[in-house]
């Protein structure tokens, strides 16, 4: 009786070939961009729930709760009006300076809050990242969604301010919706960029407030945009007029205010708004995806 020799049919395969044959992949490997996008979409309910939880928790320890969503920008507007509108008299070039100032401030704070929150979207959630498997882009997108919810509340207050200060209701108010959506895409893209940078550079959290303050002064939030061409070389004025936050502020002012001075013609503003949204949104998403396998390690 002879012994039967059993030959393993996979014995000639390398480890990599054996893993590929049985559908095994490297743990934590970055999926393809299309697969990552589909997986991110499947987590849309998680993103919404997480964003809502952030809103509730951020106001749970205060007496006025979510009322601070509107009190904070209104209080800031009052302070800036006193300093810039009254003391420095920047209101001279603008017919309705109160509404002009509030519009610029509310729109700017929308982006500012999304970017500042995005810096810590990864570094501030390491416990969640290391405990659960999900597309990490959920976190900066949830930050943007949180600030979008705050912005919707602010828009309601802003419309009230606009009406009280004498602006008529106009069909151009409908422009607020696409302008806000384009800005949201821009915010999400930038939030993803700073989220990846913030995961590597802890000091970025300390630098962002200075960067955003400088950005605010370059965005015509507190004074008329006509001052750029009046006090700067033409090339510098043109550069500032292409500033994305100035573009979104200008679109909102054009929609809500009659006779508000604009830095650029309206078609140019729309072209810039779409361009910045695509550049930041798509570019930020791809940049964040490229670092997917790094988050939560080290």
Structure description:
This protein has 298 residues and is mainly α. The chain has 13 helices and no strands. The chain has helices spanning 15-21, 33-42, 44-59, 68-87, 97-119, 126-131, 138-164, 176-200, 204-217, 226-231, 234-241, 244-256, 266-290. The model has no long low-confidence stretch (mean pLDDT 83).
Average pLDDT value? 83
Q: How widely separated are the two ends?
A: 59 Å
Number of helices: 13
Rough outline: elongated
Largest sheet: none
Helix content: 55-70%
Low confidence ranges: none
- Given the helix and strand composition, which structural class is it? mainly alpha
Radius of gyration: 24 Å
Determine the oligomeric state from the structure.
Answer: single chain
Percentage of residues in DSSP E strands: under 5%
Total E-strand runs: 0
N to C succession of SSEs = HHHHHHHHHHHHH
Topology of this structure?
Layout: H1 15-21, H2 33-42, H3 44-59, H4 68-87, H5 97-119, H6 126-131, H7 138-164, H8 176-200, H9 204-217, H10 226-231, H11 234-241, H12 244-256, H13 266-290
Helix pairs in contact: 3-7, 4-5, 5-7, 5-8, 5-9, 5-12, 7-8, 8-12, 8-13, 12-13
Keywords, please?
67% helix; 298 residues; elongated; mainly alpha; single chain
Q: Short description, anyone?
A:
Helices cover 67% and strands 0% of the residues.
């Amino acid at each position: 009786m002879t012994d039967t020799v059993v030959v393993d049919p996979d014995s000639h395969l390398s480890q990599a070939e054996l893993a590929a044959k049985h559908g095994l992949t490297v743990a934590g490997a970055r999926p393809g961009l299309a697969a990552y996008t589909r997986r991110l979409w499947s987590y849309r309910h998680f993103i919404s729930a997480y964003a809502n939880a952030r809103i509730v928790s951020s106001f749970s320890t205060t007496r006025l709760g979510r009322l601070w969503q509107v009190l904070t920008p209104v209080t800031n507007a009052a302070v800036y009006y006193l300093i810039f509108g009254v003391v420095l008299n920047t209101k001279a070039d603008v017919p309705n300076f109160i509404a002009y100032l509030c519009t610029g401030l509310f729109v700017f704070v929308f982006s500012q809050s999304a970017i500042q929150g995005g810096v810590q979207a990864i570094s501030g959630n390491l416990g969640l990242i290391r405990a659960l498997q999900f597309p990490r882009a959920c976190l900066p997108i949830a930050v943007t969604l949180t600030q979008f919810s705050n912005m919707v509340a602010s828009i309601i207050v802003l419309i009230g301010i606009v009406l009280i200060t004498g602006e008529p209701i106009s069909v151009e108010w409908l422009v607020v919706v696409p302008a806000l959506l384009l800005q949201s895409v821009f915010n999400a893209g930038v939030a993803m960029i700073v989220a990846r940078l913030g995961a590597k550079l802890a000091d970025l959290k300390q630098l962002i407030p200075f960067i955003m303050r400088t950005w605010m002064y370059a965005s015509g939030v507190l004074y008329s945009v006509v001052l750029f061409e009046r006090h700067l070389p033409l090339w510098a004025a043109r550069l500032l007029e292409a500033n994305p936050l100035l573009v979104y502020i200008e679109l909102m002012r054009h929609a809500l205010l009659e006779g508000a001075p604009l830095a650029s013609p309206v078609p140019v503003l729309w072209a810039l708004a779409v361009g910045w949204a695509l550049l930041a949104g798509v570019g930020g998403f791809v940049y964040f995806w490229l670092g997917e396998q790094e988050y939560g390690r080290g």
